[in-house]
């Protein structure tokens, strides 16, 4: 949940949704209340008009009986239980009502309102709560009259309910449209950041060396600064590699002179001194090669865009090893899943695999099997099997020592597997030895996987 709320996209969309819903909710409430006030006022005005019309039409006979000169103009006062009712009563007890009352008496509160005044009351009518307008009318020579004219509250509520439901549906559709527009706007507005993220991934996986600069003006300065940082970092790493190479040459030249002097001592008959000098020179040369390889890998490990495709790296190595060891009848077989990319410099991956494949070719009887495959979503495994004599388990760690060789008759300096372990470790990988199903030694390499 915390990761979700750290997203710009989530924050912007959530903020837009909250404001849209809040704004439309307030707008809907205000519109509903305004409509309620308007319709209620219109309803009451209509009742007032009917009351004025009824007051003009009512008459009193000499015997005190109430008469209506003609019926009201609104036909809704005619049907029974129509919801529209009127009644006129005199203080003398006479009364007359609308046909919609069907002989029922319209309840009106006591006492009579003062002459010339009106009041609004709610009473229980024949079909529910009634919204009643009551007024008093005085006529010359006649008792005081009161007129009650009303309509069911449910009629007003039905109008308001229908309006509110229509308003709700309309505002919901508007809200969905605005939320969709907000999501589209956020997606379109943040698209340059997504593009930059993809470009950074391309740099990290080695598919590009720098970020594109055809970006919006708000993002362009960031891309320019990142490109400058990448260039500065690469320049620093290039200098480090160059210095490592210069140091190697600077040390190897004196070593070559010392080795030459050892040969001169041996030619002069000083065999013991020559052997001592040669042995120490060989040890120094091993250490120089070993440390230079580590320094180069350590520098490249921090470089952006470090990536190697396993299949592309294996192809020339297998071809070279097949020519080198093919004369002994050793065959290299490869099973490599397509598109496997690991977070290793191509040159270092080539050196790692070259050392292992060369060792496998030296000890194999007839076949070396290479299998490269994905190991889960984040790792790649490269397995090298040979059908040679293999190694006892107690020797697995021994062969990774600098200068260690199990068979002095085999050519080499004992640096191969030591460099392999250090290079693999620098790239946060793993190397393991095990017994091979082919009868020889199995070497298992594991590296961090990068997406193609």
UniProtKB/TrEMBL annotation:
Top-tier EC class: transferase
EC number: 2.7.13.3
Location in or out of the cell: Membrane
One Pfam entry name: HATPase_c
Residue ranges constituting the HAMP domain according to the UniProt record: 187-238
Keywords: Kinase, Membrane, Phosphoprotein, Transferase, Transmembrane, Transmembrane helix, Two-component regulatory system
GO MF annotations in UniProt: kinase activity
Chief localization: membrane
Keyword Transferase: yes
Domain of life: Bacteria
Regions crossing the membrane: 12-31, 165-188
Catalysed reaction, written as an equation: ATP + protein L-histidine = ADP + protein N-phospho-L-histidine
Membrane listed as a keyword: yes
Domain (Histidine kinase): residue spans on this chain: 246-451
Protein name per UniProt: histidine kinase
Organism: Phenylobacterium koreense
């Amino acid at each position: 949940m915390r990761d979700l709320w750290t997203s710009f996209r989530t924050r912007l969309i959530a903020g837009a949704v909250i404001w849209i819903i809040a704004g439309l909710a307030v707008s809907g409430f205000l519109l509903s209340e305004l409509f309620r006030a308007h319709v209620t006022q219109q309803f009451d005005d209509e009742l007032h008009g009917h009351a004025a019309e009824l007051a003009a039409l009512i008459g009193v006979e000499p015997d005190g009986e109430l008469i209506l000169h003609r019926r009201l103009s609104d036909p809704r006062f005619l049907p029974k239980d129509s919801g529209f009712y009127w009644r006129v009563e005199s203080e003398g007890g006479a009364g007359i009502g609308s046909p919609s009352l069907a002989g029922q008496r319209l309840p009106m509160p006591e006492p009579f309102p003062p002459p010339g005044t009106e009041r609004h009351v709610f009473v229980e009518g024949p079909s529910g709560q009634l919204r009643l307008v009551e007024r008093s009318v005085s006529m010359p020579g006649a008792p005081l009259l009161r007129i009650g004219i009303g309509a069911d509250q449910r009629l007003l509520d039905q109008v308001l309910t229908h309006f509110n439901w229509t308003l709700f549906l309309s505002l919901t559709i508007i809200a969905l449209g605005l939320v969709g527009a907000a999501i589209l706007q956020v997606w379109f507005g943040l698209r340059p950041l997504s593009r930059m993220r993809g470009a950074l991934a391309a740099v990290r996986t080695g598919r590009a060396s720098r970020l594109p600069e055809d970006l919006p003006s708000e993002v362009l300065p960031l891309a320019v600064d990142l490109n400058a940082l990448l260039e500065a970092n690469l320049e620093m790493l290039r200098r480090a590699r160059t210095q490592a190479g210069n140091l190697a040459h600077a040390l190897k030249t004196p070593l070559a002179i010392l080795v030459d002097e050892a040969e001169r001592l041996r030619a002069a008959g000083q065999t013991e001194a020559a052997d001592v000098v040669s042995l120490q020179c060989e040890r120094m040369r091993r250490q120089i090669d070993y440390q230079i390889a580590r320094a180069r890998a350590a520098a490249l490990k921090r470089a952006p865009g470090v990536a190697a495709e396993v299949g592309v790296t294996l192809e020339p190595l297998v071809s070279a090893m097949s020519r080198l060891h093919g004369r002994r009848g050793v065959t290299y077989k490869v099973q490599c899943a397509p598109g496997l990319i690991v977070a290793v410099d191509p040159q270092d991956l080539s050196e790692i695999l070259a050392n292992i494949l060369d060792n496998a070719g030296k000890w194999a009887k007839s076949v070396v099997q290479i299998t490269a495959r994905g190991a889960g979503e984040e790792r790649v495994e490269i397995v090298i099997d040979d059908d040679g004599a293999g190694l006892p388990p107690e020797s697995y760690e021994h062969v990774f020592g600098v200068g260690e060789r199990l068979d002095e008759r085999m050519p080499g300096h004992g640096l191969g597997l030591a460099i392999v372990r250090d290079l693999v470790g620098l790239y946060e990988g793993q190397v393991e030895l095990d017994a091979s199903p082919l009868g020889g030694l199995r070497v298992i390499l594991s590296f961090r996987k990068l997406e193609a």
